[in-house]
Amino acid sequence: MIDKSSPIPVYYQLKNDLISKISEGVWKPGECIASERELCEVYGVSRMTIRQAIGELVQEGVLLRIKGKGTYVCEQTLKQQDMMSFTEIIKQMGKELRSEVVEFCKINTPEHLADIFSLDELYKIKRKRIVDDECVALETVYIPVDYCGYIDMEMLNGSLFKILEGFGYTVDYSQSSIASVIMDDELKNIFSVDKQVPMLKIISKTYDHNNKMIFLEEAIYRSDKFILQVNISRREGKIR
């Protein structure tokens, strides 16, 4: 299983093999994996190598160390990296996604959005995003009616990115603010839970390649199910 003559570091080979075993169901979410001593014997590597591989998987949210008990497999979470639509994330993970439209209408631009949108009418689209029959997100999106023309309920079953591309827009980047949210009774009902779970609120302004803001999204995610991975870089005097 481990090729010590390979240019690929041994710990990295080990890490990938552990991931494969988890994917194959050798260790399921919530189960304890083999001990460090057992892994040393199975793979024929040092305990330091085992700890390096496991340490990276802990940092990535794949494994969880519990002092005095062992290392456990975490429940798989949805991870957003770079500019990906929620639909793309779920497709990449091989999971089943469906959208339940909670509200869809045309509205006059609300006062709190007047500084963002100068146009009179907006589409307001509120959707529950349900992954493998479990609601993990509530999205509320505002799009100027003049940008899109006609949108119907059937179109809202898929990606909004794709809808906008159909109207000639290319999504380029977004600017987001992130905050924690305390779950109230309304959110418990929306997410169909009977106890407090951690929530994350992300407000994003999404722009096309001409720096034109094409929609505003206010989304609430279950942060025990969703990870937002932020990559920050400095580019020739321009930071996004």
TrEMBL record:
Keywords: DNA-binding, Transcription, Transcription regulation. Gene3D superfamilies: Chorismate lyase-like, Winged helix-like DNA-binding domain superfamily/Winged helix DNA-binding domain. Residues 8-76 form the HTH gntR-type domain. GO terms for molecular function: DNA binding; DNA-binding transcription factor activity. SMART domains: HTH_GNTR, UTRA. Pfam families: GntR, UTRA. InterPro entries: Bact_HTH_transcr_reg, Chorismate_lyase_/UTRA_dom_sf, Tscrpt_reg_HTH_GntR, UTRA, WH-like_DNA-bd_sf, WH_DNA-bd_sf. It comes from the Bacteria. PANTHER family: MANNOSYL-D-GLYCERATE TRANSPORT/METABOLISM SYSTEM REPRESSOR MNGR-RELATED, MANNOSYL-D-GLYCERATE TRANSPORT_METABOLISM SYSTEM REPRESSOR MNGR-RELATED. This is GntR family transcriptional regulator. It comes from Clostridium sartagoforme AAU1.
